[in-house]
Amino acid sequence: MLILKGKLLSIIDKAIYKNDEGMPVTSKPKVQLLVQVKKKNQNLSHELYTLSVPENVFEQVKNKLNQEVEIQVSIFGNQKITFYGV
Questions:
Q1: What percent of the chain has pLDDT over 90?
Q2: SS3 for 78?
């Protein structure tokens, strides 16, 4: 289990779009976290992550704008790591 901790900067509610067959599909809600990251040279910087999250996680954090939050995540990707909420 991985936990991503950062300041909640933005929330993005679910969106409805059409798939290839023209059927409506609802996306997951998303959150944007500003995360402090320690670089190889030990300097600190900030990185912005946009995470798709399940509805229950969205409900837990949506009223915590500009506050520190922790979100359980998984990762995927070959070159660049991509996080998503679980």
A1: 64
A2: coil
